[in-house]
From TrEMBL:
Name this protein carries in UniProt: Ubiquinol-cytochrome c reductase iron-sulfur subunit
Chain segments annotated as transmembrane: 24-45
SUPFAM superfamilies: ISP domain (SSF50022)
CDD domains: Rieske (cd03467)
Keyword Kinase: no
Pfam families: Rieske
Family matches, as PROSITE patterns: RIESKE, TAT
Keywords: 2Fe-2S, Disulfide bond, Iron, Iron-sulfur, Membrane, Metal-binding, Transmembrane, Transmembrane helix
PANTHER family (UniProt xref): CYTOCHROME B-C1 COMPLEX SUBUNIT RIESKE, MITOCHONDRIAL
Length: 177
């Protein structure tokens, strides 16, 4: 670049980009609209995400029956648990078949048939000394092993004994068979 051109560029006034009134108005209204939309949307996002942020409670144990009442013959026990699903709290009624095994340990089986989810019952004319599902004739042994129709054994509850009482916890896969 020669000396003359360099002087011309050095003495030229700097051109500034000026904002028009129309641009100012659209930036101002757009910013105000985004601020108001954020004020409406953020509480909805918080509402949707809130259950994820809550601490999960571990599956608690429920006192169901005195230890002295448990025999080698399965006994049906009904009980309630408290559960929270998002914002919905409920106290569903559940059932379990509690018995003492040959090893002397207490175990509890879920009464829900693994074939199609009907409720099984113990003994009777249809299946003496077995669990029987009235829906499709599934049979289970005393330990919950599937004998007929059902693809899997009955699930069991975690069992804990304390101060002469039997407590049931969450359902786990059958560990006896």
């Amino acid at each position: 670049m020669d000396h003359n051109k360099q002087q011309e560029t050095a003495h030229k006034p700097v051109k500034r980009k000026e904002m028009s009134r129309r641009q100012f108005l659209s930036y101002t209204l757009g910013g105000a609209g985004a601020f108001m939309a954020g004020g409406a949307v953020l509480p909805m996002i918080r509402f949707a995400v809130d259950p994820i942020l809550q601490k999960k409670e571990s599956g608690g144990f429920v006192k169901v029956i005195e230890e002295s009442q448990v025999t080698s013959e399965p006994t049906e026990v009904k009980f309630k648990i408290h559960q929270v699903d998002g914002w919905y709290e409920s106290d569903p009624k559940l059932a379990a078949w509690i018995t003492k095994g040959d090893d002397g340990k207490i175990y509890a089986l879920s009464p829900v048939c693994k074939h199609l989810g009907c409720m099984v019952s113990w003994g009777g004319d249809a299946a003496p000394n077995k669990y029987h599902c009235p829906c499709h004739g599934a049979l289970y042994s005393k330990d919950g092993q599937a004998l007929k129709v059902a693809p899997k054994p009955l699930d069991e509850y975690e069992v804990r004994t304390e101060n002469g009482w039997v407590y049931l916890g969450p359902i786990i896969p059958n560990s006896r068979v």
